[in-house]
Amino acid sequence: MRDERSPDGLGPYGAEPGGAGDGGGRAARRRSDRGGATGAGGRRRSPLAIAGRTALALSSALVLLASGVSWAAYNWVSSGLNTSDALNAIGGKDAPKHLDNSVNLLLIGLDSRKDMNGNDLPREFVRDQLHAGSSDIGYYNTNTLILMHIPADGGKVTAFSVPRDDYVQTFNGDGTSQGHFKIKEAYGNAYTVAHDKLAAQGVKGADLESRSREAGREATLATVQNFLQVPIDHFAEVNLLGFYDIAKVLQPIEVCLKHPVKDRYSGADFPAGHQQLNPKQALAFVRQRHGLDGGDLDRTHRQQAFISSVTHKLKSEGVFGDLGKLQGLFDVVKKDLVIDSKFDVLDFAQQATNLTGGNVVFHTLPIAGFATRNRESVNLVDVPKIRSIVRALIGGTSGSPGGPGGSPSPSTSTKAAPATVDVLNGSGKTGAAADELKALAALGYTPGRTDNAASRQRTTVRYGAGAEEAARQLAGRLGTAAPVSSAAVPAGHVQVVLGTDFTAPPATEAPTAPETSADPATKGGAPSQVPSDAFAGDSVKEGGIPCVN
């Protein structure tokens, strides 16, 4: 079969075969070993990044649960929900703590062309309706991650979209480090390891799929909680088919574009201005990234705008008075959505007016630039800056402990704890230890010695007596597992041993967002103001039909 590609090497449906663009890393290599990443003719294809076309289903599904569901409907819906205990893995003593009764909800959009039992979606459906190529190229990337902060007082909901290609330290549910990967790959990495281990033990079929996905959920929750340094109270996951099903029930969906677009990879072909979309067109709207100035970041804004449009329709058109559409939505929730087992539908329904009344603002967290890591294109991120922005908007303490390995990182507004830092180079990168020590000295740490060390995969942090706080800060800066006390390290010293996973963090800039007081009693953990240019592109306010690129 002829391999049709565009001049830039892209397949006819936007899949980027092999290459650095998407879906690489350990998960891709492992599934290639199992034969799941090759299409007809043996061509290896990477998963098509479809950020957005999944999260929208999940957000819509959550909104419907939150919008005046009757007791009878609640019993009917909850009896058939797919639930997960993945939150139990990340709720240990080291998890970030709450200052009040607010709720943090993580929305997970899973880019998988499989159903809940691990069966491939019909090839014709994937090709003709999703316009996404063969179902063989799908895997378990979380191409959409949105953290929604719901205040205790019922005020404005703040939502943060995490770009899927952010290059961060990823974790398993038990707190062990996976290494540095794109944040979307934490799920697939853990899924692959669990799947292989369970299969070797004789686990098969739907049970194998369910338990492997549970490992993926735990890893995603642990990674996001560590990255943002905020506790996750609830989560909801939706698969690729869920978005299509939601759009089919609620069609037509109104959207607005600032400019006309035409993209053969996603199938997007729309004029500028307001327009009504059917389900297939809706997929193209939230899937397009080629031909957009901001690429993936613009596609993230499309996700946010679509969520706004759907929730606006739920509220303004009285969908919940239409029994046919209501039953259709409930069917989607029960078929396509997974929520945590602690999720109380009636309790969450108290937030209905906030979620559908225009009181949600979506922000896209900033990136610090682009680079190539592990032969993949990634987003570099300034972790201290991102944590500062999140804390400023939702309230919190500047020194709250993290999740697995989570520690506050020093920024220009967080004084470096006193310690002498020694950096040993086991990364194989010439000059890495000297460069990192220079960067740490600029942050206020006392520079110690540099030396070479035996090659190792993981970067580690150890500390001597009296240097624990500095060690925690440095572990947070470098995204390592929790620092370890060692009698072999002199008192007052921190020893950093760089591994092959080491990537120099971006230089810490003056914070664009003021931090909340370290004493929650001072301000009650109240949010601070953050300049609009602190984010990646314009924020999207829910409550209408926002126009986007």
Summarize the structure.
This protein is of the alpha/beta class. Helix content is 32%, strand content 19%.
Describe this structure in words.
The chain folds into two domains: 55-395, 3-Layer(aba) Sandwich (Aminopeptidase); 420-498, 2-Layer Sandwich (Alpha-Beta Plaits). It has 549 residues and is α/β, with parallel strands linked by helices. The radius of gyration is 23 Å and the shape is globular. The protein has helices at 25-33, 55-65, 71-78, 123-128, 185-200, 205-228, 240-250, 279-287, 296-316, 323-336, 345-348, 352-356, 383-394, 432-442, 468-478, 520-523, and strands at 82-84, 103-111, 141-150, 157-161, 167-171, 177-182, 234-238, 253-257, 261-263, 268-270, 273-277, 337-340, 360-364, 369-373, 376-380, 420-425, 446-452, 460-463, 484-485, 493-498, 540-541, 547-548. The protein starts with 24 loop residues before the first helix and ends with a strand. α15 links the parallel β18 and β19. The longest helix has 24 residues, at 205-228.
